């Protein structure tokens, strides 16, 4: 019989002795869990794997823009772009890893090429005669060819291959070849690139995001929310939900799988990292069971907010974001939870995040920790300083 309990210790920030210990033996490093999507965390992830090989990355499968959108429209699959991107960030890039597979997975077909030329490149990849795949040894090469061949056989004649990610095409073929399940193919490709950490979607389901704005307007689709592929939203976001499809308002939800529940509840540290506030961070907290699992975990939860301008944060101060983050987590618990939704607000010691409401933070039992996180003359987080700060909590 086992039992869990909370313990307290004196914390030093940054705790360089503790950090050095992790860096010396990353195979035994802590289990730090990130709720994220997009590419905002990739640089931090590439550094983080130097300190622990046990980080867990729950990414959103709800993207509806870029080359992922074409695959989603073609096959009605979850978005695979963020999965591939994070797997590549965590890939073992040493000679002990698989640099040839890394190169293949990160390659994109030319943006300006003619459709026929792109089809010919895909055919060479399927045949194993393209320079990027020729150097990959069997049976790995044959496995990749098989999945690419499935994608090639299933796409329509007018499918737009311009700028398509080879890694996304491979993963889509794997999904279609595995009873339309994403988890087995993610596990397989994690092994192929020797990922030094674990990457999963929060849900293995093909859903989309819907938001209602303060002005009453309804917007469906992640790509229409971020302000990157379309105009920025005309009004702040009031609420968000998971939606079936992009045509009609059909709110839905699914419960997270047991392995996601276990990963959240057993993490040594939970981090809400920088990234698009709604479509990357809060979207990950929407599925049923996420909030309950967070509040079953007694270990520290840390929010590292964005720097600069995020179109999704329009009209939201840092304090309002803290409140929405906590309320999104607590909405799944029925307003009760064994442990907290958020413990620490991690801030750079010189950056101006706006006014802090100490009374609000005290009411939420959130402690502010300021430490150097931005290198001089930069307006972005320094990956190594962030990694050291986060690792000082565990």
Please tell me about this protein's structure:
The protein is an alpha/beta fold and about 400 residues long. The protein is built from 16 helices and 11 strands. It has helices at about 15-25, 40-50, 65-75, 80-90, 100-105, 115-125, 130-135, 140-155, 165-175, 180-190, 260-265, 275-285, 290-295, 320-330, 360-365, 385-390, and strands at about 30-35, 55-60, 200, 210-215, 220, 235-245, 250, 270, 300-305, 345-350, 365-370. The strands form 2 sheets. It has a 7-stranded parallel beta sheet, with helices on both faces. A 4-stranded antiparallel beta sheet has the order 5-4-6-7, covered by helices on one side. The protein folds into 2 domains: about 15-60 and about 255-390, Rossmann fold; about 65-70 and about 90-195, no CATH class. The mean pLDDT is about 90. It is about 40% helix and about 10% strand.
Proportion of residues in extended strands:
5-15%
What general form does the structure show?
Answer: globular
Assigned CATH class of the largest domain: Alpha Beta
Strand order of the largest sheet: 3-2-1-8-9-10-11
Total helical segments: 16
Elements, N to C (H/E): HEHEHHHHHHHHEEEEEHEHHEHEHEH
Tell me the Rg in angstroms: 21 Å
- Average pLDDT works out at 90
Second-tier CATH architecture of the largest domain: 3-Layer(aba) Sandwich
Distance between the termini: 25 Å
Structural class: alpha/beta
């Amino acid at each position: 019989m086992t039992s869990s309990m909370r313990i307290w210790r004196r914390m030093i920030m940054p705790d360089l002795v503790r950090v050095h210990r992790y860096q010396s033996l990353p195979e035994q490093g802590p289990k730090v869990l990130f709720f994220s999507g997009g590419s905002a965390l990739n640089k931090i992830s590439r550094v983080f794997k130097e300190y622990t090989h046990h980080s867990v990355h729950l990414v959103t499968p709800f993207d509806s823009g870029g080359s992922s959108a074409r695959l989603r429209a073609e096959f009605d699959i979850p978005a695979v772009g963020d999965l591939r991107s994070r797997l590549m960030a965590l890939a073992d890039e040493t000679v002990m890893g698989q640099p040839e597979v890394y190169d293949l997975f990160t390659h994109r077909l030319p943006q300006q090429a003619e459709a026929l030329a792109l089809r010919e490149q895909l055919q060479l990849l399927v045949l194993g005669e393209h320079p990027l795949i020729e150097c990959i040894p069997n049976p790995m090469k044959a496995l990749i060819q098989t999945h690419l061949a499935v994608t090639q056989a299933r796409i329509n004649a007018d499918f737009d291959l311009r700028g398509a990610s080879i890694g996304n095409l491979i993963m889509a073929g794997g999904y279609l070849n595995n009873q339309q399940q994403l988890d087995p193919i993610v596990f397989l490709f994690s092994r192929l690139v020797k990922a030094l950490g674990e990457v999963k979607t929060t849900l293995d389901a093909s859903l989309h995001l819907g938001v209602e704005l303060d002005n009453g307007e309804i917007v469906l689709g992640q790509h229409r929310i971020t302000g990157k592929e379309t105009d920025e939203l005309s009004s702040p976001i009031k609420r968000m939900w998971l939606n079936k499809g992009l045509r009609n308002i059909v709110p839905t939800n699914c419960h997270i799988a047991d392995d996601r529940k276990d990963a959240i509840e057993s993490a040594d540290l939970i981090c809400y990292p920088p990234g698009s506030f709604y479509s990357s961070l809060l979207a990950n907290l929407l599925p049923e069971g996420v909030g309950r699992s967070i509040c079953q975990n007694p270990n520290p939860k840390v929010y590292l907010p964005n720097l600069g301008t995020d179109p999704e944060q329009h009209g939201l101060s840092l304090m309002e974001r803290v409140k929405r983050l906590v309320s999104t987590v607590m909405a799944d618990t029925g307003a009760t939870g064994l442990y907290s939704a958020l413990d620490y607000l991690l801030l750079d010691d010189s950056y101006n995040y706006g006014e802090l409401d100490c009374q609000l933070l005290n009411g939420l039992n959130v402690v502010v920790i300021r430490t150097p996180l931005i290198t001089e003359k930069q307006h972005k987080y320094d990956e190594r300083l962030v990694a050291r700060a986060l690792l000082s909590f565990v």
